[in-house]
Every structure is written in C-alpha cells, then in structure tokens.
Amino acid sequence: MSFSTMLYTMGEGMLRTCAIFILTILFSLPLGLVIMFLRRSRFFIVRTITKFYIAVMRGTPLMLQLLMWYFGPYYLFGMNIRGYRFAAIIIGFSMNYAAYFAEIYRGGMETIPQGQYEAAEVLGYGKAQTFFKIILPQVVKAILPSVTNEIITLVKDTSLAFTLAYNEMFSLAKQIAASQTSFVPFVVAGVFYFVANYAVAFTMEFIEKKFDYYK
Q1: CB 185 within 8 A of CB 173
Q2: Helix, strand, coil shares, percent, the chain, to 5
C-alpha cells in the first residue's frame, strides 16, 4: 500500500472519528445541563436517581458502557442490532460525557453567590431570565478550563469505538500497521490526535478570552 493510499484510507477513518466527536459534543453538552438540574432538584428521589446515574457513568469504564449500549438491547429485548453500531457509539459517548459535564456545571453553579439570585429577584427578573442573563454567563466563564480538559479527553477517547468494531481512524491505523508491518500509520494517527487537540485547545482559549470581561 502506497503512502497516499494509506492517507486516503485513514482519512475516511478521520471523518468517522470527527463525526463521533462532533455528535457527542452536540448531545452531551445540553444533556449535561439537564442532568445538572435534575441533580439539584428539590425532590429527593430525583436527586438520588441522578446521583446514582452519574456515579455509574463515572465509575465504570467507557469501553464497558459501549458494549452494554450495543449488546444490551439484543440480550434484553431481542432487538435486531444490525445497523445500530454507530447509534450505540453516539449514545454511549453522549451519556458518559453528559455525566461529567453535569458535575462540571454543578461545580460552576455552586460558585455563584446566593446574593446574585436575591438581587435579580429584587430587580424583577424571573427564574429563566436570572439563569440565562446573569448566572449562565458567569458559570460558562468559570467552567471553561474544565470543559476544555473533558473535550480534549473526548478527542482521544474516540479511539474506544474500536470496541464495537467500528472503523474509525485508530482502528484503521491498527489494521494497516498489522497488514503492512509498518509503524507509519501509528505516527499518522498520533499527528491527527495532536493536531485535533491543539485545535480544540486553541479554540477554547479564544473563547476564554472572549469571556475574560474583567480585562
């Protein structure tokens, strides 16, 4: 296999890796916000169930969760899982990362002084207005470094999709390396992950500067 052919083949895998990354971000970030609100619910049962869910997602390997999301419907309900592989990957990644983001959001919310809620109430703001206009911008500023770390981890964790025999970039790199007895595919994969993470870090740093309104 020529170098150009290898790059073309791995390029297709890179597109699949990017699809996992983008869809996971699109689903997990808002889902994490919902989970955070449930975690802070005034109802004990809701709080307890949510805390248990977060504990399971954070306390078990993502690889195991992917296997459960994929094979679970078949073993539990006899569902035909043909064509379900990619959906299981996105569900597994999104549910896992949503739990982490929920805890990051919760930590950010707890940094906001209670006096700001009281001041907003005095000024006539409703709960939704208070959250979106006053609280959320401050929370976003506070949690950006932690969110950046999780997103960088996600870029690398996309390689776990090989667990379900999905041919993303890392899986193809291993296959090509084994068939060609060459280390070059791993170098190409490493360069891709480095560039992707550098792009994420650069973008998030730019966003942080936009939120650095004190300067």
Answers
A1: yes
A2: 85, 0, 15
Q: How confident is the model at residue 130 (pLDDT cuts 50, 70, 90)?
A: confident
The domains of the chain are located at 3-211
Q: Residue 23 — very low, low, confident or very high, per pLDDT cuts 50/70/90? A: very high
Superfamily of domain 3-211: MetI-like (1.10.3720.10)
Q: Tell the burial category of 13 from Cβ atoms under 10 Å away from its Cβ (0-12, 13-18, 19+).
A: buried
Residue 43: predicted pLDDT:
93
Residue among 49, 36, 48, 57 nearest 140 (CA): 36
Closest Cα partner for 176 from 15, 9, 20, 12? 9
pTM of the model: 0.88
For 30, the enclosing helix (H) or strand (E) is helix 3-39
